[in-house]
Amino acid sequence: MAELDALDRRLIDAFQRDLPLCTRPFAAMAERLGVSEAEVLERLQTLQQGEVLSRVGPVFDHARAGASLLAAVAVPEAECDTVAAAINRSPGVNHNYAREDLAREDLARDGQVSGIDYNLWFVMTAADEVQLEARLEALEEELERPLLRLPMVEGYHIDLGFPIPWAELGGP
Amino acid sequence: MTQPTSTTMIPRDEAAPWRLRALLERGLPLTERPWLALAEACGMSEGEVLAWVERWRREGLIKRMGLVVRHHALGIRANAMVVWDLPDEHVSEVGRQLAAEPAVTLCYRRRRRLPEWPYNLFCMIHGTRRERVLAALDEIAGRHGLQETPHRVLFCRKAYKQRGGRYTREERI
């Protein structure tokens, strides 16, 4: 894990959702934290380079901004990294994870497993549904595997700006 | 050039707001005047950029604005995607209940794909250790009477990509 000190943590805690909307936002943030604007910029640059921050800026509402879809594909374990790399190269992919179903592995040991083991999960975005479907079809053709398409029907809570559990993460 | 206010703003270049959106999806430049840098890159004034962003925030196109964390990189890696097979007539109600649980970070209904995928409600629980996430899930299932509801728990094993969505067409940038 990246080494974050108290100032890094205060920055994250204070500004996951309330970036000041003014001409010098980092100066405004610095003032609130009692440090210099240069210090804030340096911290943000380091956190971004260290991949702790995806970016500083807006999070768009996926439904208003365009089209998006959660998709999954079942891949033999040994091919996961190769297929995941192809998915990553595909235009519009913004999240891509290998997932494992622990209960399913227990069932498999008992010889009771049935159905398809979807183990690569990704989100694809596009400007609209037509472009999205074209991208999915192109990827499907490249992978030579069917994609499970799971469009969202209703969102109840979509916000990853939750408080970071620093105590659980340890460190200073 | 005088800077227009949000009420008098008349965009002269219709593509400019699209260029701004495309740039914003990639995040702010980390410089003292990030809006000015964006303005210069997309052919607007700094005031126009701020007015557009303010408007998009108000209209809900922008949900939040700030530091976007990569939880995996921070060490929050025990991320469970819990999928439930609920009767269609109950799924919205249960979805709203689960969304109100502090441990649930994302919650939505998705289309089933029978026969291969019967699950219609998804919720995400982010944590640092799988035991804790599973304990939280047990408590939640107990509170909402979901112990007997068919469900699966898919933990993240590896993060290959985690970045913001890109919705603008390349030719608009």
TrEMBL record, chain A:
Cross-referenced InterPro entries: AsnC_trans_reg2 (IPR040523), HTH-Siroheme_Decarb (IPR050684), NirdL-like_HTH (IPR053953), WH-like_DNA-bd_sf (IPR036388), WH_DNA-bd_sf (IPR036390)
Gene3D superfamilies: 3.30.70.3460, Winged helix-like DNA-binding domain superfamily/Winged helix DNA-binding domain
Keyword presence, Membrane: no
Reactions catalysed: siroheme + 2 H(+) = 12,18-didecarboxysiroheme + 2 CO2
E.C. designation(s): 4.1.1.111
SUPFAM superfamilies with a match to the protein in the record: Winged helix' DNA-binding domain
Claim: Phosphoprotein is one of the keywords in the record: no
Siroheme decarboxylase NirL-like HTH domain mapped to chain residues: 8-51
PANTHER family given in the database record: SIROHEME DECARBOXYLASE NIRL SUBUNIT, TRANSCRIPTIONAL REGULATOR, ASNC FAMILY
Subunit structure: Probably forms a complex composed of NirD, NirL, NirG and NirH. All proteins are required for the total conversion of siroheme to didecarboxysiroheme.
Protein name stated in the entry: siroheme decarboxylase
UniProtKB/TrEMBL annotation, chain B:
Enzyme class: lyase
EC number: 4.1.1.111
Matches recorded under Pfam families: AsnC_trans_reg2 (PF17805), NirdL-like_HTH (PF22451)
Pathway per the UniProt entry: Porphyrin-containing compound metabolism
UniProt domain Siroheme decarboxylase NirL-like HTH: residue ranges: 23-62
Alphabetical keyword list: Lyase
InterPro entries hit by this protein: AsnC_trans_reg2 (IPR040523), HTH-Siroheme_Decarb (IPR050684), NirdL-like_HTH (IPR053953)
Domain of life: Bacteria
Domain Siroheme decarboxylase AsnC-like ligand binding: 74-161
Reaction equations catalysed: siroheme + 2 H(+) = 12,18-didecarboxysiroheme + 2 CO2
Functional note: Involved in heme d1 biosynthesis. Catalyzes the decarboxylation of siroheme into didecarboxysiroheme.
Membership in a protein family: Belongs to the Ahb/Nir family.
Quaternary structure, from the entry: Probably forms a complex composed of NirD, NirL, NirG and NirH. All proteins are required for the total conversion of siroheme to didecarboxysiroheme.
Name listed for the protein in its UniProt record: siroheme decarboxylase
